[in-house]
Structure formats: C-alpha cells, structure tokens
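[stage:ingest] chain + small molecule (6-O-phosphono-beta-D-glucopyranose)
[stage:ingest] validated
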Amino acid sequence: MKKTFPEGFLWGGAMCASQADGAYNEGGKGLDTQDLRYFDADWSAQERAMNRNRRMNHAKFQKALTDTDIEHYPFRWGIDFYNKYKEDIQLFEELGIKILRTSINWARIYPNGDDAIPNEEGIQWYIDMFTECHKRGIKVFATILHYNIPVHLVTEYGGWKNRKTAEFYVKYATTLFERLGTLVDYWLPFNEFNAGRFNPYNGVCLVEDEEKDYDSAVFQCLHNQFIANALTVKAAHRIIPGSMVGGMIARFTTYPATCKPDDVMQMILDDQYSNWFYLDVMARGKYPAYMERYFEKANIHIHMEDGDAEILKENTIDFVAFSYYFSQVSTTDQGWAKTSGNLIMANKNPYLESSEWGWQKDPVGLRITLNQIYDRYSLPVFIAENGLGAKDILENDGTIHDPYRIDYLKAHVQQMKEAITDGVDLIGYTMWGFIDLVSCGSMEMSKRYGVIYVDRDDRGHGSNRRYKKDSFEWYRKAIASNGENLD
Ligand code: BG6
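[stage:predict] done
[stage:export] tokens:
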C-alpha cells in the first residue's frame, strides 16, 4: 500500500495563453475569441457578478472586433508572459516545480485558423519557451486548446458548429506534434471539455443571440470537438509513439442534499449530464446510453457522420485530467439556496465554507473525486487545476501574507495523499494560476490564485513585477519534500 507520493510525482503549476501571455497582436498572432471579452474595472460587484456568465452576444462581439482599446480587454494584456517568460521560468525553477502546464495559442500558430502554412514566429516562440523550461529541469504539459480560437474561424465558418473547424484544429494539432513533439511531455487537446455546455462562448465560441436552436448548436459543437479530440489522439500516437494524451473536465463533485431517494437519483443525473458524459465519450469511446433520454427530452439533435462511432471508439485518451475547486449538492428542491462555483451556480452545502467568490471549499471532495474517477476509468489521473482565488495585499516591504491559501492548498494536498493510499494512480498536480493571472470567469486581476504575486490591477496598471507570497515558500518545501513537509 502506497502511503506517500510516488517518486517522480509531477508537482507543477498551471496557466494558459489567454490569461497570461498578453502581447495579443505581437509575433504575427491573429485575433482570438478571448481577445474580444470586455471588462470594465468601474463595474460594481453586482455588475461583475452578472458578467460572470460569460455569454457573448452579437453586438458585443461586433464592437470588439474593431475596438482598438486595450485596457477594457484584459486578455489582450494578461501578465505579459510572452515577453517575460525567461525571468518567470527562472522563478518557477526556484519554486522547484517539475512540470509547467500552459496552453498553446492557436492564433499564434495559424493566425486565421485556416491558413495554408503556419506562422514560423509563433512556432519559434514555443520552441524557445519550452526549451527554457527543459533547461531548468521543468517538463511541459501542453493544452492544445484552452478556449480561444482564431476569430476568423467564427466569422467565416461559424466556429465549432462547422465540422471544418474540427479539420482545421486537427491540422493545427498535427503541426504541434511535428514541430514541438520532442519538447512536450503530456498533451491535453481540450481544456475542460464540459465548459462548452456551461460557458458556451468560452468552450465552443458560440455567440448566443445568433443561434436559433441554441442547445442543439452547443451539442453539435461538442460533437465536432469530440471528433477533433479523437483524431488528435490518433495523430499524436502516430507521430509521437508512446505519447500521453489526456482528456479533461471541470469536475463538479456533488452529494445528495438529503438521503431522500429522489435527491440521490438527482445526484446520479447531475454527475452524468455535467461530468461523466464528457469523460465517457473520450475514455470509453462512445456516447453513453443515458444521454439518449437527455437528448430526447431536451429536443436536441446532433448531426453525426458515417464513421464517427469508429473514430471515437478507436482513439481513446491515455489519462484523465480534471480541475477541482469546489463541490455542491444535488436536490430536487427548486428553492434550495445557491452559491457560485466554477462555471456554474451551485447548490449550497451547509457543511462547507466558501471563498470570497462563493466557491465552496471541500478538500475531502477531492479525495472522493479521485476515487470516483479512478474507479470509473482505471486510467492514470492528473489534477490539472486546483487553487484558491482570493484578494491579496502587497505590503510596503514587498511581502504578501496569504495563510488562507496555504491552508487551502495544504488541506487539498493531504487529501491527495489519502487518495494515493486508497490506491488511486495519481500522477501529477498542477496548481492553477500559481503565478497570478487574469481570472477567466470574472476577468479580474484582483482574483488571485498565485504563490507568485503580479503587480497589476484590474485595469492592467502597475509595475507588472513579480513578488513571492508566503505560499511560495510553503509550496517550495512541499515539492522539495515530495509532499512530506506540509507545515
Ligand atoms: C477553470 C479554467 O475553469 O477555472 C481557468 O480552466 C480558470 O481558465 C479557472 O481561470 C479559475 O476560474 P476563474 O474564473 O476564477 O478564473
């Protein structure tokens, strides 16, 4: 029985292109869908909360296409990792991480998405950045798509609704395998597959009021992504024999609100529709039977092509990844109190405390999830994101005291250890936003996850200098002791 983290456990940090890189129009990059998301630092807390549903409409989309303003589009500036990566990776080495998870920006490789040849400047930037990681003893976990696609694919082809986008995506992924294959250790074709259902602009780039049958459009996009995912697994295995390609969801761990059988059944349905469906297709290679009833009831129609079933069946993933921030409860009681959670509004659990953004903190839920996922798929498991979004204070002497973050991380790492003892084949943990970056949901810089502080505010103003928070030293020691020293 294993009682400790295995040797070679992949302690790491996670970030992504749109929230960190900035430099939205440098290096030959095309405009991407996240570059179009508007934010105003003068919005009230209520306005910020309302904006969190991340839905895009026609008017906002059209305005953003030609808007040259930068301040109100936080994904255009991020933390300027594009220009600062060398000094940042030096700091990552000091932290001792074994692996960096970040995403490749499709619009840096193929600025329009349908270009005949790739942008060499974009490819070179990734070669340089990944080489820098390896020079400093850091492996690379590359997300091929963390939400943002070249805008041209939306305006010209209708984005993921069009099967052609899946073809362009496979071409893009193939280019990455051919050109960056020796520099990447783990591949993830799609960030949080279920985001398409819960945040359709982010996940599948749909502009809501342009759709007649919105729900069917969402599932058509998801089907095209499933096909793109399977063909990408196939290409990776052909071009890089032995490569590890994962599938990821945002995990909404849920418990029945009561032991009333209806609540227990509701929990099973919530799990199936919100989480398992996505992993079942990618890991088991087919649409699960329970979705037939769901599609019929919701009047959802998906166009599938001949041969799609075989594509899904023959190209399943090598490991399961997930993000984990909170848990919720399942109930048939429509009046049950609600709170925010990652991507969804969650049902409140009276036994849990919440973060400043209302996300319910539940370390034991992480152990539960790890057991559930490993039991279900018997594949290696990777925690691709976990962390606490909080407001931090940069003191005059350059220190940041964040005991709340240390408590959160420590409690979750302890539960990971329990899960390993339970027998789960857990291979890695990449803490989300280990260097502060722009929040995906609320687009605030002030919602910080990092053990490294970035001096930038919600307007993008500030020195953009990096500082170590107290949690930096905590994580450094945890990694150096392979999870033994958590004090
Ligand atoms: C995940 C995303 O859903 O949650 C990240 O993959 C995101 O991009 C993270 O940043 C935390 O969410 P938020 O809204 O607090 O940034």
